[in-house]
Amino acid sequence: MIDCRIDRLLSWATELLTDSETARLDAEVLLCHILQKDRSFLFTWPEHELSEQQLSDFKQLVVQRQKGTPVAYLTGERDFWTLKLAVSPATLIPRPDTELLVEQALAKELPENATVADLGTGTGAIALAMASEQRQWTVVGVDKFKDAVKLAEQNARNNSINNVTFYQGSWCEALPDDNYHMIVSNPPYICSDDKHLSQGDVRFEPETALASGADGLDDIRIIIQQAVSKLQNGGWLLLEHGYHQAESIQQLMRHAGFSRVSTVQDLSGHDRVTQGQLFF
Description:
Elements: H1 6-16, H2 23-35, H3 39-44, H4 52-66, H5 71-75, E1 77-80, E2 83-86, H6 99-106, E3 115-119, H7 125-133, E4 138-143, H8 146-158, E5 164-168, E6 180-185, H9 218-227, E7 231-240, H10 246-255, E8 258-265, E9 271-278
Parallel strand pairs: 3-4, 3-6, 4-5, 6-7
Antiparallel strand pairs: 1-2, 7-9, 8-9
């Protein structure tokens, strides 16, 4: 018989989730989801007892997490930037590392009414974060998959963000105009035979949002090539990528005509975002 007190339930769940590097946090997030409370409630009221239905629901979530299902898919949401985003198995789960891409985009000196595009938008995380910070910008997000576009539109409504529009289509081909001040993307960049695709939370995410050819650069090559005809003179291209890909991407961008090409590292000291500016 499982005790229904918060403190004992958290201990029980943490012991079960041994395969997770964040077992205690996972348990807390799942329990908060069931209770519809924030984490401070767990610490303030450790003796609080769950109802039978709440206990049953929590146990089911813990079992699913034990099997590897990502917490974000179990709760249906993920925090990103200052936003709370709905997520689904149709899209990649937004990750904290990607906030570096948003930071770099917002740091660019663009016109007050800049037009900016986010390619492979998924949940809309990057597009919505930029649009929420720069309400005068016109932001466009594109994704190849209809379900992702619908989810991004839902997230825009949920966060009351009105200066962003989403389109279905492949990379720059889906953009309705060809005069963008900046294009950003967190595209698939994992090598197709990478062993990590069959490990951890990644197992449950769509491979089309993760893998991109033998060297992981197939989609990035397409984006760089297409962006040349979509950017204004002086326009920026920013790409998130894997820790070992910066040199190759810098070469691709320079070959395509970009200048001021540089790479920014994340908080772990890994190369994460490569950017360049196009002049003609």
